[in-house]
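The methods section describes the discrete structure representation at length, but only in general terms. What matters is that the chain and its backbone geometry are given together, residue for residue. For illustration, here is how one protein appears when written out as sequence plus structure tokens:
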Amino acid sequence: MTDVDRWDALERRVAELERRLPASEDRAAATPDPDVFWALEGLLARVDDPGAVLITGHVTLPDGRAARWQEGVGVEELLDGDWSEHVAALVALAHPARIRLVQHVLRGAATAQELTGIEGMGTSGQVYHHLRQLVAAGWLQTIGGSRYEVPVARIVSLLATILGTRR
């Protein structure tokens, strides 16, 4: 193989690699947003050390309900608080059937009968048991016609809880 052949082969390989790269506009979209930490920057500007935790969200659910929520607490208050007070709320979500029920209800209020129809959900007695646990913990509430919905005040915190488990 001559030097010219090698250069030609190398140019073909480089051209093939360039062809496989995403278009320049795709690369621009992948560039991190310089304002990606806008909420954190706002919190840092308002809170001194040792800091705070902030939950904020703006959600419009498929049924049209809107939830705009913000809650912040100083880290010392969180660390010094009695975490055992929150066990019931966390346990209520910590069951595969219950988390599926809440997820389904977030898409729109549903009756127990509709929820029983979810594949693999179990008997109506089991569904009612799970619904009672979720209502008692405040994750669901009943509305007219024996329908269930996630209270607006819980929507953002529920979604933030799920988001937090993705880390």
